[in-house]
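Build the 3D complex.
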Amino acid sequence: MLVLEKNLLYSIVRYGDSGRFVELARSQGAGGATVFLAKGTASSSVLRALGLGERRREVVLVLAGEDTARSIIKAAQKDNKIEGVSILIGNAGEEDMDTKLKMITVIVNSGYAEDVMAAARKAGATGGTVTHARGTAPNDGSEKFFGVTIVPEKEMITIVADQEKAKTIVQTIKTLPCLQTPGVGVLYVQDVKEFENLGSK
Amino acid sequence: MDLRTKAKETLLSLLPIMGVVVILNFTIAPMGSHMGPFLLGSVMLFAGLTLFLAGAEAGFSPVGERLGVVMAQKKNLPFMLAIGFLIGFGVTFAEPDVNVLAYQVSSMNRSINPTVLKLLIAIGLGLFIDLGLVRTIKRMKLNLLLDILYLVTFGLILIAGQAMASIAFDASGSTTGPLAVPFVLAIGLGVAQSSSGGSEDSFGLTGIASVGPIFAVLMMAVFTRGNAAAAAESGEVAEEAIKLFPKMLEVTKNTAIGLAPLVGLILILQFTMLKFPPVKFRLICTGIIFGFVGIVIFLTGVEYGFSPVGRLLGEILSARYSSMLVPSLIALLFGAIVVTAEPAVWVLTNQVEEVTAGRIKHTTVLLALSAGVAVCVALSVIRVYLNINYIIFIFVLVGISLILSWIAPPLFVAIAFDSGGVASGPMSTTFILSFIMGLSGSAELGFGVVGMIAMSPLVAIQVLGVVFKVKERKVLKKKEERKNVGA
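Done.
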């Protein structure tokens, strides 16, 4: 297991940019990275209404000491070929934790992500990232065949928002009528130490 | 929905064919005023297919997946069979590839009503999905059941004659399109899980289901034998000037009728079992609307510019060359590029690589498939020139597949039969079929090529399975030798 003194650097980049990002992280002293696929939600409300504008994204997880993590973010910002965001998540129990930003993670049964995002947006969220995931419920008979995965599929939604908005977002999601069945999902909030946009904006 | 990725895939599958047609136009087969409609038709094909694929992914796939889960929870056989039939029927009736085929058939042979043909194909598929489900639950051996089914098919072919046999196999090849596959797979998985069987039980459903349309069409031929067969043999290529907008209206009407049963079913299921949350359901509805618009544009493009040029190209070549060498070489080329362009083929090739833990590379699979399809298309041309009976081809191809099904590893057998329809996608039903029809100029010889393309993966994948088996043995032997040396 890795030592806990490290921080998690959670970066969401444009599909195909992860290779470059990992290379960059290594050159700044990170040991390695974990990459998985996700989709970002549309930023334009017109596209959203049409059901279009979803973008494929890659999420890069890097465990690194705080200084290393910050230098990775700086380097990624300078490299304007990478497009996305970097979020540095702090460890609980640290003292300088009066951060203004929060990262909300919601894990729900497959099919609910769009509803969660719509509610979050109403409560003030500007965007979010959706990842497919798999639960390990007791009846874990999940099989993959021809790209169709069945039972028990989950969707994981990541949203970053400032503290005040985060509260309303959490409240709105919790009171969604379609999320009232027991066992439909979980939600947790983490502190964000640093949040930076990468690439040209 | 991610339009960009779909657009890229579609473009990739369209450009090679367009390129070859344009090159042929400037070299050996000038087509003059037909090139305008062809280019417009291609653009419509591109736009329509992109919209349809994106819409199907957002609108239809989630329903299929959710349905599999719900069915797995219910554990109620009559209920499963009812849903299996209804979905199989609805999906096939709406499938654009089936639509194209039905109209190609009725344009050659006025005595066959396209809607009736579509209904038959859909009923056949629905019933055989149920048969496949029963097999899963009763744990019957896949290759045994397939042997029985194909033996009965052979008997029916002998009664029905080659004209109907070729249409029957084409029908089967066109059912496994982008709409049907996710649904059928999801249902298969759902049922396999609830019957507590292993993962092998979930394979094979598509393979059995695709025999259904063959049965249905052959049965129709057997019962209506006299008039339908006679008309088929006297059929001629119908030449009509097609106007864009009236065509589009007609296609819109037909597509609406085609999609109605499936959409109705989805709506009923939404309020009874699926219960998608509101925003997700809205997205599914937009997906379905996109899919609908996509199918309309796609089919209009096909009938307006794409198919006519395929047919014309065939006619020009057959007029120009009395020997079959050049046309069959061109057919070889078309076959090879068409298969690499089908998006579903890429899924299959990667799957084989995964199953063999990388020992059979996906490029190898692609090469094998490409060669198989190229040979099949070229054989179709040779058949047209030499007037060989289609039944012989079917007997040989199916015979080889069935024999291989006892030699190749079971997993490869299941994947091979499931992926039968994978190679025959929109490009083969629209372009290759028209090309061969133009070349032959008669209904009797024109059909059957889609069915042949659909059968080539059966041979190709199973041969790879045998190769894999041999390779694995060699590896094991080497390991043993090394052990012996070490000792």
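The beta strands of chain A are 7-14, 34-40, 55-64, 84-89, 101-109, 129-134, 143-145, 148-150, 153-162, 185-198.
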